[in-house]
């Protein structure tokens, strides 16, 4: 997404796609579904999509039936998803490249 905006200039920094609007920011992109659900992600220097507990918490709070997990709840959830998720730097997580590619045929960086 970021490369389509920055390098290629194929899409604008904000627009709508189907039931989502998006806004490219700093190192990432915020998607907002028409029901108010917010999905925010950043990109690592190699273009891999990454997220942290703050972004997960914002997602939970934006759900139609809001959920406000504790940091411990979030850590437990992320731990339970290993090896599907990897910690790329302290507190920041991504989909494990080899697992995503094997399961879907799509690399995590191409979402």
Task: Kindly name the structural category.
Answer: alpha+beta
Instruction: Give the total of domains.
Output: 1
Helix count, per DSSP?
4
Radius of gyration over all CA atoms, rounded: 15 Å
Cα shape: flat
The number of distinct β-strands equals 7
SSE arrangement, N to C: HEEEEEHHEEH
Strand content: 25-35%
Strand order in the sheet with the most strands: 1-2-3-4-5-7-6
Terminal-residue CA separation: 8 Å
Which consecutive residue ranges, at least 5 long each, have pLDDT under 50? 98-111
Q: Tell me about the largest β-sheet.
A: 7 strands, antiparallel
**Helical percent range?**
25-40%
Report mean pLDDT, rounded to a whole number.
82
Secondary-structure map with pairings?
Blueprint: H1 2-6, E1 14-17, E2 20-25, E3 28-33, E4 38-43, E5 49-52, H2 53-62, H3 71-80, E6 85-89, E7 92-95, H4 97-104
Antiparallel strand pairs: 1-2, 2-3, 3-4, 4-5, 5-7, 6-7
Structure description:
With 111 residues, this protein is α+β, with helices and mostly antiparallel strands. It has one domain (2-103). It is built from 4 helices and 7 strands. It has a 7-stranded antiparallel sheet with strand order 1-2-3-4-5-7-6. β3 and β4 form a beta hairpin. The longest helix has 10 residues, at 53-62. It is flat. The termini are close together.
């Amino acid at each position: 997404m970021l490369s389509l905006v920055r390098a290629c200039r194929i899409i604008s920094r904000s627009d709508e796609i189907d039931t989502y609007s998006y806004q490219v920011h700093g190192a990432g992109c915020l998607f907002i579904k028409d029901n108010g659900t917010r999905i925010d992600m950043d990109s690592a220097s190699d273009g891999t999509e990454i997220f942290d507990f703050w972004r997960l918490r914002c997602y939970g709070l934006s759900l139609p039936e809001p959920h406000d997990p504790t940091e411990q709840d979030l850590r437990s959830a992320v731990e339970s998803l290993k090896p599907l998720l990897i910690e790329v730097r302290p507190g920041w997580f991504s989909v494990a490249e080899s697992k995503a590619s094997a399961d879907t045929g799509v690399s995590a960086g191409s979402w």
